[in-house]
Amino acid sequence: MISIGLFKQKNKTFGIALGGGAAWAVAHIGVLEVLEENGIKIDGIAGTSAGSIVASLYAFGLRPHEIKDLALRLKLSDVFHWKISKMGLSQTDRIVSLIVDAIGEKKIGDAGIPLFITATDLMRAEAFVFDKDAFVHEAVAASCAIPGVFVPFEFNGRVLVDGSLVADVNCKVLKENRFDVVVGVELSNYRKGKKPNNMFEILLESLQGMVERSNRELFKYADLVVRPQIFEIGRFEIDKVPQLLQKGREAMASRIIDIKKLL
Question: Is the pLDDT of residue 236 over 70?
């Protein structure tokens, strides 16, 4: 346990935004563990792409150790349903099942704390944040729909794909909803100069410039950004869960005093 004394949070509201990164998102669980161990209460949470999975589970009451148990059992076949079509290589139905199995068929407004899930509106080239009446499993599936890998998710006339393209670490939505202290957790931009291991990493690296540009804008709304040092782990190395958890813990532990000062 990484804990630095007892902490009494003041009357400031605290929001945290979790970015995408496929298997890298496991690091978010380590981040949440350290916050919990230090008595820091999260009042609102935003998640994009794989970060939306962790954010949703947490917002619906799963504690970090419970989310960790799910991650340790997770296989790539629990996420990908290979069914090649002209729109993508995989359906999003297994992402839907992953969420439904964990929390049931719930709407975003049913969450225990405010939950914000972002996708990219492909036709409008802009961020789309789901409202409280949207089903969580649909929002997460859309937010995770990597273009070219997953078939886009159609929702109320919109064609939605991975939210990381335009709002990877959506600190902006938390500030707009008047959270006093906003922390972003960024998992992107760590494999520069390293050769991609597979076609999916080639695709994601080609989109990385868009992700970085959006984050530069979004971090204007952050009071602090945490960046787990996960550069040696591939985005799809789901067998590296223990290492990713530890990287998340180390990153948050290194900034926990700064966060307490903000609160």
Answer: yes
Angle (CA) 139 171 23, round 5°? 55
What is the 3 state secondary structure string of the chain? CCCCCCCCCCCCCEEEEECCCHHHHHHHHHHHHHHHHCCCCCCEEEEECHHHHHHHHHHCCCCHHHHHHHHHHCCHHHCCEEEEECCEEEECHHHHHHHHHHHCCCEHHHCCCCEEEEEEECCCCEEEECCCCCEHHHHHHHHCCCECCECCEEECCEEEECCHHHHCCCHHHHHHCCCCEEEEECCCCCCCCCCCCCHHHHHHHHHHHHHHHHHHHHHHHCCEEECCCCCCCCCCCHHHHHHHHHHHHHHHHHHHHHHHHHC
Tell me: the pLDDT tens digits for 147-165? 988 999 999 999 999 999 9
What's the one-letter identity of residue 167? A
* Residue 3, both tokens: 């804990």
Spatial CA neighbour of 136 closest among 207, 61, 188: 61
For 4-35, the pLDDT digits (tens) are: 455 667 789 999 999 998 899 999 999 999 99
